[in-house]
Specification:
By secondary structure, the chain is an alpha+beta fold. The chain has one domain. About 40% of the residues lie in helices and about 30% in strands. It is built from five helices and five strands; from the N terminus they run H-H-E-E-E-E-H-H-H-E. A five-stranded antiparallel beta sheet has the order 4-3-2-1-5.
């Protein structure tokens, strides 16, 4: 218990020294920007992972922070994208990605957005170097706290189960608070 308290205290000190906030809820983004980020993620992975008619795709993104300058906004997020298929009475994970991402957009007239850059780190020995180069220090601190979040995966699993099996699952208790946006949102 003392170790957990010390760890929490250390994280609080690091966040205050770095001027960083905890991961933002997607609700902290402008609603139109959040929908645009969702569409960017779904289009990015829809192109890389074409889905068969029997599959279902969804995504969940944790916003780690934003940076705005000169009409451009960079959204730093941890993105979880999954594809599912119904198999043996259950939603089965087919493929996907779980990765830190930087999405730069430009605000257009009328409150719409245009994608400027969709960035992900390279694999292998480049991964850490890419993160160091792209993410501000205050965001890199937050990355470790969300890197292994089972909550996001559980929420996407529940969403896929609802897609395939509907209301018959409503009796199960929902123990996740992550927002999941399906392909059509």
């Amino acid at each position: 218990m003392k170790k957990a308290t010390a760890l929490i205290l250390l994280l609080c000190i690091l966040f205050s020294l770095a001027g960083c906030r905890a991961p933002l809820a997607t609700a902290d983004l402008d609603a139109e920007l959040d929908r645009f980020i969702h569409r960017c993620i779904m289009e990015r992975y829809g192109d890389q992972h074409p889905q068969a008619e029997t599959e279902y795709a969804n995504e969940s993104h944790d916003v780690l922070g934003t940076d705005a300058s000169e009409g451009r906004i960079t959204v730093y997020a941890w993105v979880l994208y999954r594809q599912w298929k119904e198999e043996n009475g259950r939603a089965t994970d087919v493929s996907g990605s779980d990765i830190p991402t930087a999405i730069m957009v430009e605000e257009q007239a009328g409150g719409t957005y245009k994608l400027i850059e969709y960035w992900e780190p390279r694999d292998g020995s480049y991964y850490s170097k890419d993160i160091q180069a792209k993410f501000p220090g205050k965001i890199r601190i937050v990355l470790d706290t969300v890197a292994q979040s089972q909550t996001r995966f559980n929420a996407t699993q529940q969403d896929a189960d609802m897609h395939f099996f509907g209301d018959e699952l409503n009796d199960e208790e929902d123990d996740t608070d992550a927002e999941v946006l399906p392909a059509g949102a």
